[in-house]
Structure formats: structure tokens, C-alpha cells
Structure prediction request, 140 residues.
Amino acid sequence: MLGTRFGLLSIMLASALLPGGCGKGTRLDRLPVSGSVSAPAGDLLSGSITFLPAEGHPGPAATTGLVQGRYQFDRSNGPTAGPKRVIVNRIIPKAKALENRNAKQPKGSAKPPAGQKMQWTLFADLADDGIYKCDLTLSP
Prediction:
């Protein structure tokens, strides 16, 4: 009797842990998205890229590195399908930052020199259609 109960309990537990349905996953499944980010002046940016769910949509945020204008997520850290707010952060290499610091700027200006924008916000709609490429172009 105890063995039968244990066997039945094991089957119930295993079926509760299995994902339901067949075919495509849920809207909250992470996607292996990759792509490029084109800068206004043709620079190959380094920094980070973050995909956040657009307002009113569920899902986790996903952030990865941006190296020489390219990024890549896998199924363990990628964004979910649906509308996204995309934030691209630029990191200026130390040598370039020192060069910029020595460049003449107007007194009291805390902004980077012209052409050195540090963050962009864009919007993208990621479809779970098997094509996980998202190339972005930044505006000046």
C-alpha cells in the first residue's frame, strides 16, 4: 500500500513539473536574440544593451554586453517575446575618455563633447517566430 501511494505521488509530482502543451512556448520563454547596433557616426560601440518589457507587458529584463557593435543573448539570459524598450549604454575606452577630458569644453559643462552621446532608448517588438535577430540603428 505504501509503495502504491509513493508511486502515485511520484507520478503526480512529475506531471506537475512538466511543461504543458506542445509546440511553441509561452510569451515568458527567453529568446536567443543577437544582432548589431549601428552608431550615428559609424563607430563600433562597446557597452551594454538592455531589453525591458514595454509598459503594461510582463517579463524579465535582459542585459548583455555590447562589443564592437555586436551583442548576443542565449535562452538562459535573453529577452522574452513582445514589445520592448531597449536601452543602449556606451562605454568610452579609458584612452578616449582621457582624450575627451583634455578637449576644450565650455565652462561648467558636465556633458561629454559633441558626438559622445552615452545612452539611447529605442523600441523593438520581438516575435517568437524562430528568427531571433534584432539589428538596431541609433540616432545622433
